[in-house]
Amino acid sequence: MRRLSAGLTAGALLLVATACGSSDGGSSDPGASSGGITTVRVGLIPIVDVAPLYLGQKQGIFEKQGLKLEFTTAQGGAAIVPGVASGQFQFGFSNVTSLMVAQSNGVPVKAVANGIASTGVAGEDFGALMVKKGSQVKSAKELEGKKVAINTLKNINETAVRESVRKAGGDPDKVNFVELAFDQMPAALDQGQIDAAMVVEPATATIKTQGGVEIASPLVDVAPDLTVAMYFASTQYAQQNPEVVKKFQDATAESLAYADAHPDEARQIITTYTKIPADVLAKVTLPKWPAEANRSSIEALMKLGETDGLFKKTPDLDALLP
Questions:
Q1: What residues contact residue 277 under an 8 Å CB cut-off, 6+ apart?
Q2: What does the pLDDT look like over 138-169, one tens digit per residue?
Q3: 203 closest CA partner among 219, 192, 187
Q4: How far apart are CA 172 and CA 17, in angstroms?
Q5: Three-state secondary structure string covering 76-131
Q6: Would you state the pLDDT for residue 16?
Q7: N or C, which end of the chain has less CB nearby within 10 Å?
Q8: Predicted local distance difference test score (pLDDT) of residue 78
Q9: Residues 80, 92: contact at Cβ < 8 Å?
């Protein structure tokens, strides 16, 4: 079940990606412009979080800015970071911890737009630490010695689960973290291959339909209204293409606002890039899609990352954030 973790440098690119969404072949040149429209490749994770970009594309919000997005999916932000750094993608979606880890490792990345935030409500968040129906594990403290699935190692979900274990009075160093894609977690949990899973929607709703139980809300445990993930570019691309970046920022901000104001459309667009059944879709908890990042929550996340020994040096948030 454990998979080789994706490295955080361009030379360690281990991304296995599948084209989906709006890709139609397009130009082979990154950032190519045709007929006044600039095509940019965006690395995403096939989860609820990124619904605003699919909605923005569908609603013509990006086209209005002169952009066409070509989406490619990956397992997690830790895999997308080297894709952006190497120029495979012009923009990517990543949890904030993976961006801070990348920067501390000398990978030149720059967050350019907000992505997603926790609801801030324990038990009612889009992310949850869950166990199967009938599990003897009733709290995060009881995960000591247990196998817990996260989408990629050494990222925001590991940090968040570790904090939940600490807050419950347990020792996070005694938890056995294993790497597994979000969409594979429900079956693995149901079959007893793992003891718990840190999931986000739509996997959260899928496990609930299986009778699974939430034992903690790790993203809420980190900080109130936690900024979970952001869209980013390589520092070089951002410096060389400021106009494209500005267009992407403006279109993304408008798309985030549109998704927040049209939750039914956000739910529906999820069916175009995930295999979520209609009955599960109705149970999905949508996240918050604010236009601006919550810096204090990112600072709290950074402190936890330092506690967990994730960074070679303290991240420079002034350089990393928009």
A1: none
A2: 999 999 999 999 998 988 999 999 999 999 99
A3: 187
A4: 32
A5: CHHHHHHHHHCCCCCEEEEEHHHHHHHHHCCCCEEEEEEEEECCCCCCCCCEEEEE
A6: 29
A7: N
A8: 74
A9: yes
Q: Residue with structure tokens 């190692």? A: 153
CA angle 10, 11, 12 (to 5 degrees): 90
**Which tokens in the block code for residue 75?**
């397992």
203 sits in which H/E element? helix 203-209
In this prediction the pTM is 0.85
Cβ atoms of 144 and 174 closer than 8 Å: yes
Asked if 94 and 229 touch (Cβ cutoff 8 Å), the reply is yes
Provide the pLDDT for residue 64.
96
Q: CA nearest 87: which of 11, 6, 4, 5?
A: 11
Closest by Cα among 9, 80, 79, 32 to 231? 80
**129, two tokens:** 């630490």
Q: What is the pLDDT of residue 244?
A: 97
Q: How does residue 12 score in pLDDT terms, banded at 50, 70 and 90?
A: very low
Q: Which helix (H) or strand (E) holds 289?
A: none
* Region of residue 201 (phi > 0: left; psi between -120 and 50: alpha; otherwise: beta): beta
Q: Which amino acid is at 181?
A: A
Residue 179 token pair: 């790497």
pLDDT tens-place string over residues 257-296 = 999 999 999 999 999 998 888 888 888 999 999 999 999 9
What's the CA gap between 308 and 162, in Å, rounded? 9
